[in-house]
Write a structure and sequence with these properties.
The complex is a heterotetramer, with two copies of chain A (104 residues) and two copies of chain B (132 residues).
Chain A (H helix, E strand, L loop, with lengths): L3 E7 L4 E10 L4 H14 L3 E12 L1 H16 L4 E4 L3 H9 L2 H4 L1 E2 L1
Parallel strand pairs in A: 2-3, 3-4, 4-5
Antiparallel strand pairs in A: 1-2
Helix pairs in contact in A: 1-2
Chain B lengths: L2 E8 L5 H15 L3 H21 L5 E9 L2 E8 L23 H8 L2 E6 L5 E8 L2
Antiparallel strand pairs in B: 1-2, 2-3, 3-5, 4-5
Classes of the chains: A alpha/beta (104), B alpha+beta (132).
The complex binds adenosine-5'-diphosphate (2 copies).
The site of one adenosine-5'-diphosphate has 17 residues of chain C, from helix 2 and helix 3.
Protein name (chains B, C): ATP-binding protein
Pfam families (chains B, C): HATPase_c_2
InterPro entries (chains B, C): Anti-sigma-factor_SerPK, HATPase_C_sf, HATPase_dom
Chain lengths: 104, 132, 132, 104
Protein backbone atom coordinates (compact mmCIF):
# COMPACT_ATOMS: atom_id res chain seq x y z
CA UNK A 1 0.00 0.00 0.00
CA UNK A 2 1.33 3.42 -0.83
CA UNK A 3 0.58 6.89 0.50
CA UNK A 4 -2.53 8.93 -0.21
CA UNK A 5 -2.92 12.56 0.78
CA UNK A 6 -5.96 14.81 1.05
CA UNK A 7 -5.19 18.47 1.71
CA UNK A 8 -7.52 21.38 2.24
CA UNK A 9 -7.39 24.79 3.85
CA UNK A 10 -9.73 25.28 6.79
CA UNK A 11 -10.71 28.96 6.64
CA UNK A 12 -12.50 29.18 9.97
CA UNK A 13 -9.56 27.64 11.87
CA UNK A 14 -7.00 29.22 9.55
CA UNK A 15 -4.98 26.05 9.14
CA UNK A 16 -4.05 23.38 6.64
CA UNK A 17 -5.71 20.03 7.20
CA UNK A 18 -3.94 17.03 5.69
CA UNK A 19 -5.36 13.56 5.79
CA UNK A 20 -2.60 10.95 5.66
CA UNK A 21 -3.60 7.48 4.41
CA UNK A 22 -1.41 4.43 3.95
CA UNK A 23 2.33 4.24 4.38
CA UNK A 24 5.00 6.90 4.60
CA UNK A 25 8.24 5.16 3.84
CA UNK A 26 11.46 5.42 1.85
CA UNK A 27 9.42 5.08 -1.33
CA UNK A 28 6.59 7.54 -0.65
CA UNK A 29 8.26 10.17 1.54
CA UNK A 30 9.04 12.51 -1.36
CA UNK A 31 5.32 12.71 -2.17
CA UNK A 32 4.72 14.01 1.35
CA UNK A 33 7.71 16.34 1.26
CA UNK A 34 6.66 17.96 -2.00
CA UNK A 35 3.06 18.39 -0.91
CA UNK A 36 4.02 20.01 2.40
CA UNK A 37 6.44 22.41 0.77
CA UNK A 38 3.84 23.41 -1.79
CA UNK A 39 1.16 24.05 0.83
CA UNK A 40 3.56 26.03 2.97
CA UNK A 41 4.55 28.19 0.01
CA UNK A 42 0.93 28.79 -0.88
CA UNK A 43 0.05 29.95 2.61
CA UNK A 44 1.92 29.84 5.88
CA UNK A 45 -0.34 28.60 8.66
CA UNK A 46 -0.78 25.92 11.30
CA UNK A 47 -0.85 22.33 10.08
CA UNK A 48 -3.16 19.58 11.30
CA UNK A 49 -2.45 16.02 10.21
CA UNK A 50 -5.37 13.60 10.36
CA UNK A 51 -3.86 10.18 10.90
CA UNK A 52 -6.78 7.81 11.40
CA UNK A 53 -5.76 5.88 8.28
CA UNK A 54 -2.02 6.27 8.53
CA UNK A 55 -0.78 2.69 8.79
CA UNK A 56 2.98 3.03 8.81
CA UNK A 57 5.77 5.58 9.08
CA UNK A 58 9.49 4.90 9.18
CA UNK A 59 12.50 7.07 10.06
CA UNK A 60 12.72 8.51 6.56
CA UNK A 61 9.10 9.68 6.91
CA UNK A 62 9.79 11.06 10.40
CA UNK A 63 12.77 12.89 8.89
CA UNK A 64 10.46 14.66 6.44
CA UNK A 65 8.18 15.71 9.30
CA UNK A 66 11.09 16.95 11.40
CA UNK A 67 12.60 19.09 8.68
CA UNK A 68 9.17 20.41 7.80
CA UNK A 69 8.58 21.21 11.45
CA UNK A 70 11.75 23.28 11.51
CA UNK A 71 10.49 25.25 8.49
CA UNK A 72 7.08 25.89 9.96
CA UNK A 73 8.52 26.76 13.36
CA UNK A 74 10.42 29.65 11.80
CA UNK A 75 7.04 31.22 10.99
CA UNK A 76 5.91 30.41 14.55
CA UNK A 77 3.14 28.05 13.52
CA UNK A 78 2.23 24.74 15.14
CA UNK A 79 2.08 21.21 13.77
CA UNK A 80 -0.60 18.96 15.20
CA UNK A 81 -1.29 15.24 14.79
CA UNK A 82 -4.75 13.78 15.31
CA UNK A 83 -5.84 10.17 15.89
CA UNK A 84 -2.47 8.46 15.59
CA UNK A 85 -2.66 4.67 15.74
CA UNK A 86 -1.03 3.10 18.80
CA UNK A 87 1.88 1.65 16.79
CA UNK A 88 2.69 5.07 15.34
CA UNK A 89 2.22 6.91 18.61
CA UNK A 90 4.74 4.47 20.03
CA UNK A 91 7.34 5.55 17.45
CA UNK A 92 6.61 9.23 18.08
CA UNK A 93 7.26 8.67 21.81
CA UNK A 94 10.31 6.50 21.22
CA UNK A 95 11.97 9.14 19.08
CA UNK A 96 10.91 12.13 21.21
CA UNK A 97 8.64 13.57 18.52
CA UNK A 98 5.72 13.63 20.94
CA UNK A 99 7.67 16.44 22.65
CA UNK A 100 7.92 18.72 19.61
CA UNK A 101 4.60 18.01 17.94
CA UNK A 102 1.15 18.59 19.42
CA UNK A 103 -0.75 15.33 19.56
CA UNK A 104 -4.41 14.83 20.26
CA UNK B 1 13.77 -28.08 12.01
CA UNK B 2 13.54 -24.31 11.68
CA UNK B 3 11.56 -22.80 8.86
CA UNK B 4 13.70 -20.39 6.84
CA UNK B 5 12.47 -17.82 4.33
CA UNK B 6 15.09 -16.21 2.13
CA UNK B 7 14.52 -13.10 0.11
CA UNK B 8 16.80 -11.15 -2.18
CA UNK B 9 15.64 -7.73 -3.38
CA UNK B 10 16.88 -5.06 -5.75
CA UNK B 11 18.52 -2.18 -3.83
CA UNK B 12 15.69 0.19 -4.66
CA UNK B 13 13.15 1.97 -2.46
CA UNK B 14 10.12 0.46 -4.16
CA UNK B 15 10.91 -3.11 -3.12
CA UNK B 16 11.36 -2.46 0.60
CA UNK B 17 7.68 -3.10 1.18
CA UNK B 18 8.08 -6.70 -0.04
CA UNK B 19 10.46 -7.22 2.87
CA UNK B 20 7.98 -5.67 5.28
CA UNK B 21 5.11 -7.78 3.95
CA UNK B 22 7.17 -10.94 4.35
CA UNK B 23 8.23 -9.94 7.85
CA UNK B 24 4.61 -9.31 8.88
CA UNK B 25 3.52 -12.60 7.39
CA UNK B 26 6.14 -14.70 9.17
CA UNK B 27 5.66 -12.88 12.47
CA UNK B 28 1.90 -13.31 12.22
CA UNK B 29 2.18 -17.05 11.47
CA UNK B 30 4.47 -17.47 14.49
CA UNK B 31 1.83 -15.95 16.73
CA UNK B 32 3.33 -12.57 17.62
CA UNK B 33 0.71 -10.06 18.75
CA UNK B 34 -0.18 -7.00 16.68
CA UNK B 35 2.15 -4.66 18.55
CA UNK B 36 5.11 -7.00 18.11
CA UNK B 37 4.29 -7.51 14.43
CA UNK B 38 4.38 -3.74 13.90
CA UNK B 39 7.71 -3.54 15.75
CA UNK B 40 9.23 -6.26 13.58
CA UNK B 41 7.88 -4.71 10.41
CA UNK B 42 9.40 -1.34 11.25
CA UNK B 43 12.75 -2.77 12.32
CA UNK B 44 12.99 -4.72 9.06
CA UNK B 45 11.96 -1.63 7.10
CA UNK B 46 14.69 0.44 8.76
CA UNK B 47 17.38 -2.15 8.04
CA UNK B 48 16.28 -2.35 4.41
CA UNK B 49 16.28 1.46 4.14
CA UNK B 50 19.89 1.46 5.29
CA UNK B 51 20.85 -1.24 2.79
CA UNK B 52 19.22 0.78 0.02
CA UNK B 53 20.39 4.25 1.09
CA UNK B 54 23.84 3.71 2.57
CA UNK B 55 25.35 0.54 1.18
CA UNK B 56 26.27 2.29 -2.06
CA UNK B 57 25.55 -0.93 -3.89
CA UNK B 58 23.05 -0.70 -6.71
CA UNK B 59 22.52 -4.38 -7.02
CA UNK B 60 20.67 -6.51 -4.47
CA UNK B 61 20.58 -7.25 -0.76
CA UNK B 62 19.39 -10.29 1.17
CA UNK B 63 17.03 -11.04 3.98
CA UNK B 64 16.77 -14.26 5.94
CA UNK B 65 13.87 -14.99 8.27
CA UNK B 66 14.57 -17.86 10.63
CA UNK B 67 11.62 -19.18 12.55
CA UNK B 68 12.81 -20.76 15.67
CA UNK B 69 10.13 -22.03 18.02
CA UNK B 70 9.55 -18.84 20.05
CA UNK B 71 12.19 -16.64 18.44
CA UNK B 72 12.18 -14.94 15.09
CA UNK B 73 15.69 -14.18 13.86
CA UNK B 74 16.08 -11.85 10.89
CA UNK B 75 19.33 -11.18 9.06
CA UNK B 76 19.62 -8.33 6.58
CA UNK B 77 22.82 -8.34 4.60
CA UNK B 78 24.11 -6.01 1.94
CA UNK B 79 27.27 -6.18 -0.13
CA UNK B 80 28.02 -2.47 -0.12
CA UNK B 81 30.33 0.05 1.50
CA UNK B 82 29.93 -0.92 5.13
CA UNK B 83 30.77 1.65 7.79
CA UNK B 84 32.83 2.12 10.92
CA UNK B 85 30.45 1.21 13.70
CA UNK B 86 32.84 2.66 16.31
CA UNK B 87 31.95 6.10 15.01
CA UNK B 88 28.22 5.53 15.43
CA UNK B 89 26.54 7.91 17.86
CA UNK B 90 23.04 7.52 19.21
CA UNK B 91 20.62 10.29 18.25
CA UNK B 92 20.01 13.10 20.77
CA UNK B 93 16.26 12.89 21.16
CA UNK B 94 15.99 16.39 22.70
CA UNK B 95 17.23 17.89 19.43
CA UNK B 96 15.37 16.06 16.69
CA UNK B 97 17.40 15.60 13.50
CA UNK B 98 16.25 14.55 10.06
CA UNK B 99 18.60 11.57 10.07
CA UNK B 100 20.14 9.07 12.41
CA UNK B 101 17.05 7.39 13.85
CA UNK B 102 17.16 4.07 11.98
CA UNK B 103 19.55 1.95 14.04
CA UNK B 104 18.18 3.48 17.24
CA UNK B 105 14.65 2.38 16.31
CA UNK B 106 15.81 -1.12 15.43
CA UNK B 107 17.64 -1.52 18.74
CA UNK B 108 14.69 -0.15 20.67
CA UNK B 109 12.08 -2.43 19.10
CA UNK B 110 13.93 -5.74 18.85
CA UNK B 111 15.08 -7.93 21.74
CA UNK B 112 18.55 -8.55 20.37
CA UNK B 113 20.49 -6.75 17.66
CA UNK B 114 24.00 -7.27 16.41
CA UNK B 115 25.80 -5.60 13.54
CA UNK B 116 28.71 -6.91 11.53
CA UNK B 117 30.14 -4.24 9.29
CA UNK B 118 33.40 -2.74 8.18
CA UNK B 119 34.35 -0.20 5.55
CA UNK B 120 34.32 -1.97 2.19
CA UNK B 121 32.95 -5.21 3.62
CA UNK B 122 29.20 -4.79 3.44
CA UNK B 123 26.88 -4.82 6.43
CA UNK B 124 25.00 -7.61 8.13
CA UNK B 125 22.46 -6.82 10.81
CA UNK B 126 21.02 -9.66 12.84
CA UNK B 127 17.96 -8.94 14.91
CA UNK B 128 15.67 -11.15 16.88
CA UNK B 129 12.47 -10.98 18.84
CA UNK B 130 10.97 -13.47 21.24
CA UNK B 131 7.25 -14.18 21.60
CA UNK B 132 6.17 -13.15 25.07
CA UNK C 1 19.37 -3.88 -15.95
CA UNK C 2 16.52 -6.18 -14.96
CA UNK C 3 15.19 -6.15 -11.43
CA UNK C 4 15.29 -9.59 -9.89
CA UNK C 5 13.48 -10.74 -6.74
CA UNK C 6 14.53 -14.08 -5.32
CA UNK C 7 12.54 -16.00 -2.76
CA UNK C 8 13.16 -19.31 -1.08
CA UNK C 9 10.34 -20.84 0.95
CA UNK C 10 9.85 -23.87 3.17
CA UNK C 11 8.00 -26.64 1.29
CA UNK C 12 4.87 -26.19 3.39
CA UNK C 13 1.34 -25.10 2.46
CA UNK C 14 1.30 -22.13 4.82
CA UNK C 15 4.08 -20.24 3.01
CA UNK C 16 2.61 -20.42 -0.49
CA UNK C 17 0.78 -17.17 0.11
CA UNK C 18 4.11 -15.32 0.54
CA UNK C 19 4.91 -16.30 -3.04
CA UNK C 20 1.51 -15.08 -4.22
CA UNK C 21 1.89 -11.78 -2.36
CA UNK C 22 5.30 -11.22 -3.91
CA UNK C 23 3.99 -12.10 -7.37
CA UNK C 24 1.09 -9.64 -7.00
CA UNK C 25 3.42 -6.94 -5.78
CA UNK C 26 5.91 -7.25 -8.63
CA UNK C 27 3.17 -7.55 -11.27
CA UNK C 28 1.43 -4.50 -9.85
CA UNK C 29 4.63 -2.42 -9.83
CA UNK C 30 5.25 -3.38 -13.45
CA UNK C 31 1.86 -2.03 -14.42
CA UNK C 32 -0.11 -5.19 -15.22
CA UNK C 33 -3.87 -4.67 -15.01
CA UNK C 34 -5.98 -6.31 -12.31
CA UNK C 35 -7.01 -9.27 -14.44
CA UNK C 36 -3.41 -10.04 -15.39
CA UNK C 37 -2.28 -9.68 -11.78
CA UNK C 38 -4.87 -12.26 -10.71
CA UNK C 39 -3.72 -14.57 -13.52
CA UNK C 40 -0.09 -14.31 -12.44
CA UNK C 41 -0.97 -14.81 -8.80
CA UNK C 42 -2.90 -17.98 -9.55
CA UNK C 43 -0.24 -19.39 -11.89
CA UNK C 44 2.42 -18.83 -9.24
CA UNK C 45 0.16 -20.37 -6.60
CA UNK C 46 -0.36 -23.49 -8.72
CA UNK C 47 3.36 -23.93 -9.36
CA UNK C 48 4.09 -23.56 -5.64
CA UNK C 49 1.33 -26.05 -4.80
CA UNK C 50 3.04 -28.56 -7.08
CA UNK C 51 6.44 -27.95 -5.50
CA UNK C 52 4.91 -28.48 -2.06
CA UNK C 53 2.62 -31.42 -2.90
CA UNK C 54 4.52 -33.41 -5.53
CA UNK C 55 8.23 -32.72 -5.22
CA UNK C 56 8.53 -35.06 -2.27
CA UNK C 57 11.12 -32.71 -0.82
CA UNK C 58 10.44 -31.44 2.67
CA UNK C 59 13.01 -28.72 2.58
CA UNK C 60 12.68 -25.57 0.48
CA UNK C 61 11.95 -24.43 -3.05
CA UNK C 62 12.89 -21.27 -4.92
CA UNK C 63 11.16 -18.57 -6.87
CA UNK C 64 12.76 -15.99 -9.11
CA UNK C 65 10.85 -12.99 -10.43
CA UNK C 66 12.62 -11.28 -13.30
CA UNK C 67 11.27 -7.92 -14.30
CA UNK C 68 12.11 -7.30 -17.85
CA UNK C 69 10.74 -4.11 -19.35
CA UNK C 70 7.34 -5.39 -20.54
CA UNK C 71 7.76 -9.04 -19.60
CA UNK C 72 7.58 -10.67 -16.19
CA UNK C 73 9.45 -13.97 -16.10
CA UNK C 74 8.93 -16.24 -13.10
CA UNK C 75 10.90 -19.39 -12.39
CA UNK C 76 9.77 -21.85 -9.74
CA UNK C 77 12.27 -24.54 -8.96
CA UNK C 78 12.16 -27.44 -6.55
CA UNK C 79 14.79 -30.03 -5.70
CA UNK C 80 12.45 -32.97 -5.40
CA UNK C 81 11.36 -36.08 -7.27
CA UNK C 82 10.63 -34.55 -10.67
CA UNK C 83 8.30 -36.40 -13.03
CA UNK C 84 8.10 -37.75 -16.54
CA UNK C 85 6.48 -34.95 -18.48
CA UNK C 86 5.91 -37.25 -21.48
CA UNK C 87 3.26 -39.02 -19.43
CA UNK C 88 1.40 -35.81 -18.67
CA UNK C 89 -2.15 -35.69 -20.00
CA UNK C 90 -4.31 -32.60 -20.13
CA UNK C 91 -7.47 -32.73 -18.00
CA UNK C 92 -10.74 -33.68 -19.72
CA UNK C 93 -12.88 -30.70 -18.85
CA UNK C 94 -16.15 -32.50 -19.66
CA UNK C 95 -15.47 -34.92 -16.79
CA UNK C 96 -14.26 -32.78 -13.90
CA UNK C 97 -11.70 -34.53 -11.69
CA UNK C 98 -10.44 -33.55 -8.26
CA UNK C 99 -6.85 -33.38 -9.54
CA UNK C 100 -4.86 -32.53 -12.59
CA UNK C 101 -5.88 -28.90 -13.17
CA UNK C 102 -2.71 -27.15 -11.98
CA UNK C 103 -0.44 -27.23 -15.03
CA UNK C 104 -3.44 -26.68 -17.31
CA UNK C 105 -4.33 -23.49 -15.42
CA UNK C 106 -0.75 -22.25 -15.55
CA UNK C 107 -0.51 -22.83 -19.30
CA UNK C 108 -3.88 -21.18 -19.89
CA UNK C 109 -3.14 -18.03 -17.91
CA UNK C 110 0.48 -17.30 -18.82
CA UNK C 111 1.80 -16.30 -22.24
CA UNK C 112 4.72 -18.69 -22.23
CA UNK C 113 5.40 -21.75 -20.07
CA UNK C 114 8.23 -24.23 -20.17
CA UNK C 115 8.96 -27.11 -17.84
CA UNK C 116 12.29 -28.76 -17.15
CA UNK C 117 11.84 -31.91 -15.12
CA UNK C 118 12.96 -35.49 -14.94
CA UNK C 119 12.49 -38.25 -12.43
CA UNK C 120 14.91 -37.64 -9.58
CA UNK C 121 16.07 -34.29 -10.92
CA UNK C 122 13.67 -31.78 -9.46
CA UNK C 123 11.36 -29.55 -11.46
CA UNK C 124 11.80 -26.07 -12.85
CA UNK C 125 8.86 -24.29 -14.38
CA UNK C 126 9.49 -21.03 -16.22
CA UNK C 127 6.49 -18.88 -17.02
CA UNK C 128 6.18 -15.43 -18.44
CA UNK C 129 3.55 -12.84 -19.15
CA UNK C 130 3.75 -9.72 -21.26
CA UNK C 131 2.03 -6.44 -20.49
CA UNK C 132 -0.53 -5.73 -23.15
CA UNK D 1 -5.56 -13.63 4.29
CA UNK D 2 -7.10 -16.98 5.13
CA UNK D 3 -10.56 -18.44 4.67
CA UNK D 4 -13.65 -17.54 6.67
CA UNK D 5 -16.92 -19.45 6.45
CA UNK D 6 -20.44 -18.60 7.56
CA UNK D 7 -22.94 -21.42 7.25
CA UNK D 8 -26.66 -21.47 7.99
CA UNK D 9 -29.65 -23.52 6.96
CA UNK D 10 -32.34 -21.61 5.11
CA UNK D 11 -35.59 -23.29 6.15
CA UNK D 12 -37.88 -21.56 3.69
CA UNK D 13 -35.68 -22.44 0.72
CA UNK D 14 -34.63 -25.76 2.23
CA UNK D 15 -30.96 -25.26 1.44
CA UNK D 16 -27.60 -24.66 3.03
CA UNK D 17 -26.24 -21.16 2.57
CA UNK D 18 -22.48 -20.79 2.92
CA UNK D 19 -20.72 -17.48 2.76
CA UNK D 20 -17.12 -17.86 1.56
CA UNK D 21 -14.71 -15.08 2.52
CA UNK D 22 -11.01 -14.80 1.74
CA UNK D 23 -8.85 -17.39 0.06
CA UNK D 24 -9.39 -21.09 -0.63
CA UNK D 25 -5.95 -22.51 -1.27
CA UNK D 26 -3.65 -25.39 -0.45
CA UNK D 27 -3.51 -24.15 3.13
CA UNK D 28 -7.20 -23.52 3.83
CA UNK D 29 -8.94 -26.11 1.63
CA UNK D 30 -9.28 -28.69 4.43
CA UNK D 31 -11.30 -26.17 6.47
CA UNK D 32 -13.78 -25.98 3.58
CA UNK D 33 -13.78 -29.73 3.02
CA UNK D 34 -14.51 -30.54 6.67
CA UNK D 35 -17.27 -27.94 6.91
CA UNK D 36 -19.03 -29.16 3.77
CA UNK D 37 -18.88 -32.79 4.83
CA UNK D 38 -20.29 -31.92 8.24
CA UNK D 39 -23.17 -29.92 6.81
CA UNK D 40 -23.98 -32.63 4.31
CA UNK D 41 -24.04 -35.23 7.07
CA UNK D 42 -26.28 -33.06 9.21
CA UNK D 43 -28.81 -32.59 6.45
CA UNK D 44 -28.75 -33.40 2.76
CA UNK D 45 -30.03 -30.45 0.74
CA UNK D 46 -29.15 -27.98 -2.00
CA UNK D 47 -26.10 -25.80 -1.39
CA UNK D 48 -25.79 -22.11 -2.16
CA UNK D 49 -22.35 -20.51 -1.93
CA UNK D 50 -22.27 -16.74 -1.48
CA UNK D 51 -19.03 -15.57 -3.01
CA UNK D 52 -19.08 -11.79 -2.86
CA UNK D 53 -16.03 -11.81 -0.61
CA UNK D 54 -14.25 -14.81 -2.03
CA UNK D 55 -10.94 -13.38 -3.24
CA UNK D 56 -9.04 -16.41 -4.47
CA UNK D 57 -9.43 -20.08 -5.26
CA UNK D 58 -6.82 -22.42 -6.69
CA UNK D 59 -6.99 -25.91 -8.17
CA UNK D 60 -6.79 -27.56 -4.76
CA UNK D 61 -9.86 -25.57 -3.72
CA UNK D 62 -11.65 -26.41 -6.96
CA UNK D 63 -10.81 -30.06 -6.27
CA UNK D 64 -12.65 -29.86 -2.96
CA UNK D 65 -15.69 -28.38 -4.69
CA UNK D 66 -15.65 -31.02 -7.43
CA UNK D 67 -15.47 -33.97 -5.07
CA UNK D 68 -18.15 -32.39 -2.91
CA UNK D 69 -20.31 -31.88 -5.98
CA UNK D 70 -20.05 -35.58 -6.77
CA UNK D 71 -21.23 -36.40 -3.24
CA UNK D 72 -24.16 -34.03 -3.39
CA UNK D 73 -25.12 -35.13 -6.89
CA UNK D 74 -25.66 -38.65 -5.62
CA UNK D 75 -28.53 -37.31 -3.51
CA UNK D 76 -29.72 -35.33 -6.57
CA UNK D 77 -29.22 -31.91 -5.04
CA UNK D 78 -27.81 -28.82 -6.74
CA UNK D 79 -24.80 -26.67 -5.97
CA UNK D 80 -25.14 -22.99 -6.74
CA UNK D 81 -22.61 -20.13 -6.70
CA UNK D 82 -23.69 -16.53 -6.24
CA UNK D 83 -21.80 -13.30 -7.00
CA UNK D 84 -18.50 -14.76 -8.10
CA UNK D 85 -15.81 -12.13 -8.76
CA UNK D 86 -14.70 -11.85 -12.40
CA UNK D 87 -11.29 -13.40 -11.71
CA UNK D 88 -12.89 -16.45 -10.11
CA UNK D 89 -15.64 -16.77 -12.71
CA UNK D 90 -12.83 -16.85 -15.25
CA UNK D 91 -11.28 -19.90 -13.55
CA UNK D 92 -14.66 -21.62 -13.33
CA UNK D 93 -15.11 -21.16 -17.09
CA UNK D 94 -11.53 -22.12 -17.90
CA UNK D 95 -11.85 -25.42 -16.06
CA UNK D 96 -15.40 -26.20 -17.22
CA UNK D 97 -16.87 -25.86 -13.75
CA UNK D 98 -19.40 -23.35 -15.01
CA UNK D 99 -20.96 -26.34 -16.83
CA UNK D 100 -21.51 -28.49 -13.73
CA UNK D 101 -22.33 -25.81 -11.17
CA UNK D 102 -25.24 -23.38 -11.31
CA UNK D 103 -23.95 -19.83 -11.31
CA UNK D 104 -25.94 -16.66 -10.82
N1 LIG E 1 23.79 -0.90 5.59
C1 LIG E 1 24.63 0.16 5.78
N2 LIG E 1 25.67 0.38 4.95
C2 LIG E 1 26.49 1.44 5.14
N3 LIG E 1 26.34 2.33 6.15
C3 LIG E 1 25.33 2.16 7.01
C4 LIG E 1 24.42 1.08 6.88
N4 LIG E 1 23.51 1.16 7.88
C5 LIG E 1 23.83 2.25 8.59
N5 LIG E 1 24.92 2.85 8.09
C6 LIG E 1 25.60 4.08 8.63
O1 LIG E 1 25.12 4.34 9.94
C7 LIG E 1 24.51 5.63 10.00
C8 LIG E 1 23.35 5.63 10.97
O2 LIG E 1 22.27 4.88 10.44
P1 LIG E 1 20.80 5.07 10.98
O3 LIG E 1 20.83 5.06 12.47
O4 LIG E 1 19.94 4.05 10.35
O5 LIG E 1 20.37 6.54 10.54
P2 LIG E 1 20.21 7.15 9.07
O6 LIG E 1 20.01 6.01 8.14
O7 LIG E 1 19.05 8.05 9.15
O8 LIG E 1 21.51 7.91 8.82
C9 LIG E 1 24.15 5.95 8.57
O9 LIG E 1 24.07 7.34 8.34
C10 LIG E 1 25.28 5.30 7.79
O10 LIG E 1 26.41 6.12 7.78
N1 LIG F 1 6.95 -29.91 -9.03
C1 LIG F 1 6.56 -31.18 -9.33
N2 LIG F 1 7.28 -32.24 -8.86
C2 LIG F 1 6.90 -33.51 -9.18
N3 LIG F 1 5.83 -33.82 -9.92
C3 LIG F 1 5.07 -32.80 -10.39
C4 LIG F 1 5.40 -31.45 -10.14
N4 LIG F 1 4.49 -30.66 -10.74
C5 LIG F 1 3.62 -31.49 -11.36
N5 LIG F 1 3.96 -32.80 -11.16
C6 LIG F 1 3.26 -34.00 -11.68
O1 LIG F 1 2.36 -33.58 -12.69
C7 LIG F 1 1.03 -33.96 -12.34
C8 LIG F 1 0.02 -32.93 -12.85
O2 LIG F 1 0.16 -31.73 -12.12
P1 LIG F 1 -1.03 -30.68 -12.12
O3 LIG F 1 -1.50 -30.45 -13.50
O4 LIG F 1 -0.54 -29.47 -11.39
O5 LIG F 1 -2.21 -31.36 -11.33
P2 LIG F 1 -2.28 -31.89 -9.82
O6 LIG F 1 -1.23 -31.16 -9.05
O7 LIG F 1 -3.65 -31.59 -9.35
O8 LIG F 1 -2.03 -33.36 -9.90
C9 LIG F 1 1.04 -34.12 -10.85
O9 LIG F 1 0.05 -34.99 -10.40
C10 LIG F 1 2.44 -34.67 -10.61
O10 LIG F 1 2.48 -36.06 -10.83
Amino acid sequence: MSLKLNSSFNDSENCWEIELMGEIDINSKSVLKDELNQLNEKKQADFIFKCENLEYIDSTGLGVLISFYKNVKIGNHTVMFEKLKPSILKIFSLTGLDKIFSIR
Amino acid sequence: MNDVVNLSLPSKPEYVSVARLTASFVANKMGFDIEAIEDIKLAVGEACNNAVLHSGSHDTYNLEFIRNDLTLVIEIKDFGAGFNYNNYVEPKLEEPQENGLGLFIIKSLMDNVSIETGEGHGTKIIMSKIIE
